[in-house]
């Protein structure tokens, strides 16, 4: 998420993320997608910016993540907001191509997700339901199992 690569998350990173996300919005209301992305920043800053410098470092994030296991409602609320953003055609399911668009948007480059998607699609019906996505998202942010499928919710790990 550190779009400008300065080692800290700031409002600029979230604006850049929103800008990229708008480009893949297609027929979806791009302003709504952008507001979901930029809406993350004040929440993250309020929760994480321990030294109040309007920037969030990885150390500050990890302090918060340690406590997320006790903040299940907050985590699942974020999952739902993200689901709305990723479900570009609004059919209540995340398709393989919608998931691919998410990861490419995040990475800013074409990224293969053919191996990852089936691991996330727990019942193998070709889509991620809201419940599947919430499970993975919660595992990613608040779980302790590195082998859980949710580890890959943002795509493959860097080798
Ligand atoms: Ca940054
Ligand atoms: Ca800070
Ligand atoms: Ca969909």
Descriptive overview:
Residues 74-109, 114-143 form the EF-hand domain. Pfam families: EF-hand_7. One of its GO terms (molecular function) is calcium ion binding. This protein has 159 residues and is mainly α. It has a two-stranded antiparallel ribbon. The protein folds into two domains: 1-70, EF-hand (Recoverin, domain 1), CATH 1.10.238; 89-159, EF-hand (Recoverin, domain 1, Orthogonal Bundle). It starts with 10 loop residues before the first helix and ends in a 17-residue tail after the last helix. Helix content is 54%, strand content 3%. It has helices at 11-23, 30-48, 58-67, 72-86, 96-107, 117-120, 130-142, and strands at 94-95, 127-128. The radius of gyration is 15 Å and the shape is globular. Helix 1 packs antiparallel against helix 2 and helix 2 (30-48) runs antiparallel to helix 4 (72-86). The protein has seven helices and two strands; from the N terminus they run ααααβααβα. The structure holds calcium ion (3 copies). One calcium ion (CA) is lined by residues 87, 89, 91, 93-95, 98.
Brief characterization of the structure:
By secondary structure, this protein is mainly alpha-helical. It is built from 7 helices and 2 strands, in the order ααααβααβα. It folds into 2 domains: 70 residues, Recoverin, domain 1; 71 residues, Orthogonal Bundle (Recoverin, domain 1), CATH 1.10.238.10.
Give the helix/strand layout:
Elements lengths: L10 H13 L6 H19 L9 H10 L4 H15 L7 E2 H12 L9 H4 L6 E2 L1 H13 L17
Antiparallel strand pairs: 1-2
Helix pairs in contact: 1-2, 2-4, 4-7
InterPro entries: EF-hand-dom_pair (IPR011992), EF_Hand_1_Ca_BS (IPR018247), EF_hand_dom (IPR002048)
Protein name: Calcium-binding protein
GO molecular function: calcium ion binding
């Amino acid at each position: 998420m550190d779009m400008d690569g300065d080692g800290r998350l700031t409002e600029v990173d979230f604006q850049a993320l929103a800008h990229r996300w708008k480009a893949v919005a297609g027929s979806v209301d791009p302003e709504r997608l952008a507001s979901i992305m930029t809406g993350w920043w004040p929440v993250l800053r309020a929760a994480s910016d321990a030294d109040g410098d309007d920037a969030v470092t990885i150390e500050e994030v990890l302090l918060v993540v340690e406590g997320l296991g006790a903040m299940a409602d907050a985590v699942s609320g974020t999952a739902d907001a993200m689901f709305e953003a990723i479900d570009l055609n609004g059919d209540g399911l995340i398709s393989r191509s919608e998931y691919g668009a998410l990861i490419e948007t995040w990475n800013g480059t074409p990224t293969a997700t053919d191996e990852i998607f089936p691991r996330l699609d727990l019942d193998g019906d070709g889509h991620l339901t809201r419940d599947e996505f919430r499970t993975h998202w919660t595992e990613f942010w608040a779980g302790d199992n590195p082998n859980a499928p949710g580890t890959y919710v943002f795509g493959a790990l860097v080798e």
